Amino acid sequence: MDGDRVKLSVVVDADEFEVAVDAAFRRIGQGLRLPGFRPGKAPRRVLEARIGLEAGRREALEHALPDYYGRALVHHEVDAIGRPEIRITGGADSGSVTFDAVIPVRPRLSISGHRKLRLEIMSPEVNNEEVEAQVDALRSQLATLETVERPATQGDLVTIDVEGVRGGEPVPGLTATEYLYEVGSGAVVSDLDEYLNGASVGDDLEFEAEYRDGEGRVSFSVSVKAVQTRLLPELDDELAAEVSQFSTAEALVSDLRDRISHAKRGQVGMLARDAAARAVADLVTIEVPPDLVESEIDERIRDLDARLRSQGLDLERYLEATGQEPDEIREEFREAAEVTARVDLGLRAVAYVEYLDENDERLDSYLDVMAVQTGLDVEEVRTRLVDSGRMLDVRADVSKRAALEWLLDDADIVDEAGNPVDRGLLEPPEPVIPEEVLPVDETNGVDPDNNGGTGVDLEDGEPPGDEEEDA
C-alpha cells in the first residue's frame, strides 16, 4: 500500500448485522407477491424459505455497508478523499461480518519557503483616477446625446438595424430596427463592437460570429443609421445637489473619496489572504491527488446547483440553457479546483511544521463563536459535529485558518509601489458554520442515518508502511 492510502479492518458483530438482515427481508417482501400474504406482510421465515437466507444477507450488506464504513471513518478520524475499495473478508453466509476498506487519504506534505513571504496587494489608498471615475458615473446620469458626423468610437451610441440569421432563419432576439447600441458594451456579440468601432453612418456591415446560445455561428447584417456621443455636464454645486444629498461639489467629491477608501480598506484582509493562499499553493510541488481535485469539483458543482435552486432553476436546466454537457462544466472548474486543493495541502503543511494543528484552545474559541452564532450551547455544537462526522473537518479548518494568519503575521505585505500596508486592516473573517451545527427540529442536527457505533467493533487500522493506526 502506498503512502496516500490506509486500510481499515471492520468487524460487525452478528447481533448488529441481524438487525440489518431483518430490515433487508422487509424491503424484499415489499416487492414480492406470495400466495396468502399481502405485499410486505409475509413473515421472514416464509421469505427465507422462498429466496434463501443468503439473498437477505446479500441485500443487508449492500444496504448497510456504507453506514458501517462511514462509522468506521468517524471512529478512526480517517481523512478520506475518495471512494474506498471494499473487500468482504468474512460473514457473507453467517455470523459476524468482516470487511477491509482501502481508502485514499489526503497526503501530508513537508513544505519550505513559506517563511517571510512578500505579498503584494492593491493599495488601500485612494487615487484621483478612482474618484474621477465615480464622478463621471454621476455625470453620466445627466448626460445628453449629440449627433456627430465622425466614425463611431468606443463609448458612442449608434443607431443600427441588425439581423442575425442561422441556416436561413432569423435567430430570435437578434433582429431589430432603430436599435440604440453602445459601442464596446458587448451586449450582443464582441465581434459587433469590433465592426462598429470606426464605422460611419450609411455603412453596411456583414460578418459571422458565435452567439451565446451555443447553437453555432450566426450571419449578421448591420446598417449604421446614426452615431451619437454623450455630453457630460460639468461637476458643479448644482449638479451635486441634483445627483446627491450634498449641496456642494466639494462635499460630494469628499464623500466619494471616503466611500472608495472604506471599500478598499475593507478589501485589504481578503486580498492579503488571497495573496498568501496563492503563494502557499505555489510551494506545493507534488502532483495533487486526482481524488482531491474531483472532490473539490463536486463541491463546486453542488454550490452552483444550490445557487441555481435559490433562483428557481437547477443544474439540469442550466446545462440545457447553456448547451453544455456535465463533463464540460467539470472541466471549467478543474483549474480552480486544483488551485484550491493545492492551497488546502499547503496550509495543512504549514500548520503541521509550525505546530499549529493541535491547539485545543483555538478549537474551543472557534466552537464558542459557532455557539454564539447558532444560539446553541457549545457542548451541543461539539456533540453535533462529532455525531455527524464533521469534527475532523472543523479541526482542519481551524488549523488552516491558524496557518493563514501565521503566514500573514510573518510576511511582508506591500502595495504595488512597495509601500508597507497597514496591518490594522487585516481583521480575520468570521468562521463558516457547517450545516450539521445549524438548529434542526426533526433530527436535532444529527444525521438520522448515523446511529453511532453500537454493535460495530472497529479493529486497528493499517496505515501505509509498518506503522499502526490507533483506534
UniProtKB/TrEMBL annotation:
<dbReference type="GO" id="GO:0006457">
    <property type="term" value="P:protein folding"/>
</dbReference>
<dbReference type="Pfam" id="PF05697">
    <property type="entry name" value="Trigger_N"/>
</dbReference>
<dbReference type="Pfam" id="PF05698">
    <property type="entry name" value="Trigger_C"/>
</dbReference>
<feature type="compositionally biased region" description="Acidic residues">
    <location>
        <begin position="457"/>
        <end position="471"/>
    </location>
</feature>
<keyword id="KW-0413">Isomerase</keyword>
<feature type="domain" description="Trigger factor ribosome-binding bacterial">
    <location>
        <begin position="4"/>
        <end position="138"/>
    </location>
</feature>
<dbReference type="InterPro" id="IPR046357">
    <property type="entry name" value="PPIase_dom_sf"/>
</dbReference>
<protein>
    <recommendedName>
        <fullName>peptidylprolyl isomerase</fullName>
        <ecNumber>5.2.1.8</ecNumber>
    </recommendedName>
</protein>
<dbReference type="InterPro" id="IPR005215">
    <property type="entry name" value="Trig_fac"/>
</dbReference>
<keyword id="KW-0143">Chaperone</keyword>
<comment type="similarity">
    <text>Belongs to the FKBP-type PPIase family. Tig subfamily.</text>
</comment>
<dbReference type="InterPro" id="IPR036611">
    <property type="entry name" value="Trigger_fac_ribosome-bd_sf"/>
</dbReference>
<dbReference type="GO" id="GO:0015031">
    <property type="term" value="P:protein transport"/>
</dbReference>
<dbReference type="InterPro" id="IPR027304">
    <property type="entry name" value="Trigger_fact/SurA_dom_sf"/>
</dbReference>
<feature type="region of interest" description="Disordered">
    <location>
        <begin position="422"/>
        <end position="471"/>
    </location>
</feature>
<dbReference type="InterPro" id="IPR008881">
    <property type="entry name" value="Trigger_fac_ribosome-bd_bac"/>
</dbReference>
<dbReference type="InterPro" id="IPR008880">
    <property type="entry name" value="Trigger_fac_C"/>
</dbReference>
<keyword id="KW-0697">Rotamase</keyword>
<dbReference type="InterPro" id="IPR037041">
    <property type="entry name" value="Trigger_fac_C_sf"/>
</dbReference>
<dbReference type="GO" id="GO:0003755">
    <property type="term" value="F:peptidyl-prolyl cis-trans isomerase activity"/>
</dbReference>
<feature type="domain" description="Trigger factor C-terminal">
    <location>
        <begin position="249"/>
        <end position="408"/>
    </location>
</feature>
